[in-house]
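Need a sequence for this fold. Nothing fancy.
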């Protein structure tokens, strides 16, 4: 039986244009256990990402047009394995399937009760934390790849990599001694 001590607030990133819906989503999470980060638009989100946005879970409004939310999901997925939930005004199976194939951890309708939204986020966080817990850095000769810290060290020195360079190196480390086509790499690393 493992016992977890949660001393640090979980950072929940919410992307929502509608101020009323944002307030409702924000109210789903109590302050001592959660820190809420907000953005109203995909452009604002891109600016936050450029400035080193870090979160434990994200909730993204699919919005109109639907491609904006899924495109934002795809961009976020390139730099994080953290849970991402998409919310929408109305259920559309075609969009739900696209979102889930693009990397969403869940897809819910905005009429969801705050307690259910919080429970879905907490369930996704548990799954992610269990998967990442205790994952040791990977070594190959003098190279050390730490996925949790998103750092690479060679002979003990930190190597400065862009998010994409790190993702590409991590992909190759997961698949040693394999050759990939450019198309395959574009799909798997660039999304």
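Here you go.
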């Amino acid at each position: 039986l493992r016992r977890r001590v949660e001393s640090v607030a979980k950072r929940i990133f919410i992307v929502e244009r509608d101020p009323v819906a944002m307030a409702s989503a924000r109210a789903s999470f109590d302050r001592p256990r959660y820190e809420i980060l907000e953005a109203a638009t995909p452009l604002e989100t891109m600016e936050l990402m450029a400035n080193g946005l870090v979160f434990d879970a994200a909730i993204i409004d699919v919005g109109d047009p639907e491609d904006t939310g899924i495109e934002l999901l795809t961009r976020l997925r390139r730099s994080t394995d953290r849970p991402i939930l998409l919310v929408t005004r109305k259920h559309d199976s075609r969009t739900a399937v696209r979102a889930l194939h693009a990397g969403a951890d869940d897809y819910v309708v905005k009429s969801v009760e705050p307690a259910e939204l919080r429970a879905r986020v907490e369930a996704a966080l548990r799954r992610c934390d269990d998967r990442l817990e205790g994952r040791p850095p990977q070594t190959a000769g003098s190279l050390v790849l730490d996925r949790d810290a998103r750092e690479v060290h060679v002979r003990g020195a930190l190597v400065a990599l862009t998010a994409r360079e790190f993702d590409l190196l991590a992909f190759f480390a997961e698949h040693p001694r394999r050759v990939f086509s450019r198309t395959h790499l574009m799909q798997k690393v660039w999304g």
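For context: DSSP finds seven helices and nine strands in the chain.
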